[in-house]
């Protein structure tokens, strides 16, 4: 659980990292002398190949990978002949093209001691790596982790910089109005001199009071970092429903297609262009979608729908994930909502790891959101999520 929580903190778009790591996958393949080199990050359900050399794979169910064993250990994991290992000999990439035989994996370990994934080397021929080559591969794995940390840090700095810039613009724009009003009213009182009557002076003072109070409210808002959202443009740390739909289709349609599940994602046409924070959304929605696919039999369907409730003080992102799968008993729903995880297997025998939905609950709680689950055994489940967004102008 700690491992997948730390991975979620990187908030990675798994489909947009190839350029940042392709030099390292190429170098690793050259050092090892293998045809294939992959950088895999493994979440609750899926192994995401964020960089690849020699094999055009983008994702695999976690239980189908060799790397699931690499992240479970403290050191390298090597299989000299996959065709002779009962765990792997019937995997599609071993029994069929590209007929891989050799595997060598190095865990991608963070400073906190969690393995986010693996640098894996694979080949159609068996081989033996020298200690020198293994040490070089460990160095490359360390550099991959360093780059992931740099990516995370840069994202945080970018968000802070954007917030500071927006705050500066708002101060210049929003304060100009009330300050100008105060100066103007004071000038009127001064120019009228003795001609002012008490009622007019009191009215002017009341207006000055209101203008000054609006500045104080603005200052409180800025100091609390509660910045408004805008529907005009997407920032570096924002999605709208259309962009999020596109991301989810690219990431999870292959999983659905592989199992014969019909995945549909719909947006609210009235608010689909309004920005909202992308913080942790791919991890939250992605895990729910993967869970729905896992527990829906072949030929079934998973539907995702989005909406954005616009409010005076804040917006609220709403989304539901519905399936017509096996459903859940009330006690299972209660365990999920309490943040507990249980290992279960999917309708096609997919292996369960017991913390996918626990992670979802943890992340939703961290964003001060809410999760509601309705389900009927044998008829499917509906996950409904609400996540508050920043203030709107």
Task: Explain what this protein looks like in three dimensions.
With 393 residues, the chain is an alpha+beta fold. Helices cover 44% and strands 20% of the residues. It has ten helices and 13 strands. The chain has helices at residues 2-9, 18-32, 67-70, 92-95, 131-192, 198-223, 241-259, 281-294, 330-337, 356-366, and strands spanning 36-42, 46-53, 59-61, 77-79, 102-109, 115-123, 238-239, 262-266, 276-277, 301-309, 316-323, 370-376, 380-388. The strands form three sheets. The chain has a six-stranded antiparallel beta sheet. A five-stranded mixed beta sheet has the order 8-10-11-13-12. It has a two-stranded antiparallel ribbon with strand order 7-9. Strand 12 (370-376) and strand 13 form a beta hairpin. 33% of the residues are buried. The model is unreliable at 225-232 (pLDDT under 50).
Q: What is the H/E string?
A: HHEEEHEHEEHHEHEEHEEHHEE
What's the overall average pLDDT, rounded? 82
What is the overall silhouette? Answer: globular
Q: What fraction of residues sit in β-strands? A: 15-25%
| Total beta-strand segments | 13
How large, in whole angstroms, is the Cα Rg?
A: 27 Å
- Assembly state (oligomeric): single chain
Straight-line distance between termini: 38 Å
List unreliable stretches of 5+ residues.
225-232
Counting DSSP H or I runs of 4 or more residues, the number of helices is 10
Strand order of the largest sheet: 3-2-1-6-5-4
**Share in helix:** 40-55%
Largest sheet: 6 strands, antiparallel
GO molecular function: kinase activity
InterPro entries: GAF-like_dom_sf, HATPase_C_sf, HATPase_dom, His_kinase_dom, HisK_dim/P_dom, HisK_dim/P_sf, Sig_transdc_His_kin-like_C
Catalytic activity: ATP + protein L-histidine = ADP + protein N-phospho-L-histidine
Organism: Mucilaginibacter defluvii
